[in-house]
Design goal:
22% helix
Length: 201
């Protein structure tokens, strides 16, 4: 039995090492890599069923942003819809000269920034140019594309911001602004297309 546990442990370590290598951060040159704010426009579209939930589009949403961090989720109702969160940055939050001074982390469907003194940019500017985004892949092709994306890359996402409802009354709603913080401030995005704009090294 001890030998079996050793084999399983070694296999797990090898798998984790492979995952780390596959998703290791990439390096980019200094400077703003994604200058434009996300583009959002109110839409009138019918709600639709997905995985037993009803999704209601609220706005079209397109962005080109630097992937700052990513976190996978496997447990809970939210993970049935959105197995992956991206922390995304644009403007000052796509520039190494700001990012190198920050500690960025994700857990529990939240995203945090921490920094020392002096701050590399104003707090309001950093928060307005970054977002934690819950991703709902529209199909397997999008799911695979998202799964391959690595921190540091500049990625292009296109889809809708949606609200979600279940028959038992459970709801999950998207933020519709980049200026909010705290609970309810994350974007809930139905991703119809996903690609890497700038791969890095």
């Amino acid at each position: 039995m001890s030998r079996l546990w050793l084999v399983l442990l070694l296999a797990l370590c090898a798998w984790q090492a492979g995952q780390w290598w596959r998703l290791r951060p990439v390096q980019q040159a200094d400077g703003v890599l994604a200058a434009e704010d996300p583009r959002q426009q109110t839409v009138v579209a019918d709600s639709f069923e997905y995985e037993g939930y009803r999704l209601s589009p609220r706005a079209s949403y397109q962005l080109r942003a630097r992937l700052l961090s990513r976190e996978s989720y496997h447990l809970g109702r939210e993970a049935e819809l959105s197995p992956l969160d991206f922390a995304l940055g644009w403007g000052v939050m796509s520039d190494n000269r700001v990012l190198d001074a920050l500690e960025i982390s994700q857990s529990g469907r939240y995203f945090w920034l921490r920094w020392g003194e002096p701050a590399p940019a104003s707090e309001s500017e950093m928060l307005r140019h970054s977002a934690n985004t819950h991703l709902i892949p529209a199909d397997d092709s999008v799911r695979r594309a998202l799964a391959r994306m690595r921190p540091g890359q500049v990625v292009a996402l296109d889809g809708w911001l949606v609200d979600v409802a279940a028959q038992d009354g459970w709801q999950w709603q998207s933020s519709l602004t980049r200026s909010d913080t705290g609970a309810g401030a994350c974007e809930l995005m139905w991703v119809r297309s996903a690609s890497v704009f700038l791969r890095g090294k």
